[in-house]
Design goal:
Shape: globular
Order of helices and strands: EEEHHEEEEEEEEEH
Structural class: mainly beta
Mean pLDDT: 90
Number of strands: 12
Radius of gyration: 20 Å
Helix content: under 10%
Largest sheet: 6 strands, antiparallel
Length: 231
């Protein structure tokens, strides 16, 4: 099952049998996922007399964020347990010196980790198939904020670790062939959330995937000077 978005982006779905339980929706445009607080907010606050009366609904910069990127609501609750979708392999100690590596005070209860945050890699069963010169930038969801969790920004090189000619550096199992004429990116994100939070609910919006054209990458690929890491 593929979703062709435009001339440079197609979303491909993973046929790994173990991930089919998830019933994960396809990525859709950010403008389809405006937060509830924004929907309820009036454009003007007449009762305010000491400052700008217009609200953020009139802010071109904020409204413009809805015109870039794609997202998927969380397809299952994050409750601290490993699943095929949400797994470990990352640790607060990997970013020692940041707030996400902070320690908590005992008693710890059944969860013996001294760290305040737990980390998970979220393996969405989709990947981006993009034309030459295009990258995929992962950002936190841009239209809302939360004090209890954080999605980390990141981007990788296209086709950075192709295995068996079908998958790129992923623990998900793909059978769809990689076409070396395109750039591929897994839709995988890293989230940190407080151990004091029992769960992050299914349906929560946590990330934004933004296509980004890189002229330098395009030039290298056009000249055959860059071919990723195809096996």
């Amino acid at each position: 099952m593929n979703v062709e978005v435009n001339s440079y982006l197609t979303w491909e779905y993973c046929d790994d049998p173990e991930i089919q339980y998830l019933e994960c929706a396809a990525p859709t445009a950010m403008r389809n996922h405006m937060p509830e607080w924004f929907k309820k907010l009036k454009g003007k606050r007449n009762e305010i007399t000491f400052a700008e009366q217009r609200t953020i609904r009139n802010c071109l910069g904020f409204r413009g964020l809805a015109n870039i990127g794609y997202t998927i609501p969380l397809p299952e609750d994050l409750d601290g347990y490993d699943t095929y979708f949400a797994r470990g392999r990352v640790h607060p100690g990997m970013i020692e010196g940041t707030l996400f590596a902070g320690v908590r005070q005992p008693p710890f209860g059944s969860d013996r980790s001294p760290y305040e945050y737990r980390f998970k890699i979220l393996h969405y069963p989709w990947r981006a198939k993009m034309s030459k010169g295009w990258r995929l930038l992962i950002l936190p969801y841009l239209l809302d904020w939360n004090n209890d969790w954080n999605e980390f920004a990141g981007t990788v090189e296209p086709n950075y670790d192709v295995q068996h000619g079908t998958q790129i550096g992923s623990s998900l199992k793909w059978t769809t062939a990689i076409d070396p004429e395109y750039n591929y990116y897994n839709l995988e994100t890293v989230i940190a959330y407080k151990r004091s939070v029992s769960k992050i609910n299914k349906g929560t919006l946590t990330f934004c995937a933004v296509p980004l054209f890189d002229p330098e990458l395009f030039d290298k690929q056009r000249k055959g000077m860059y071919n990723g890491n195809m096996d």
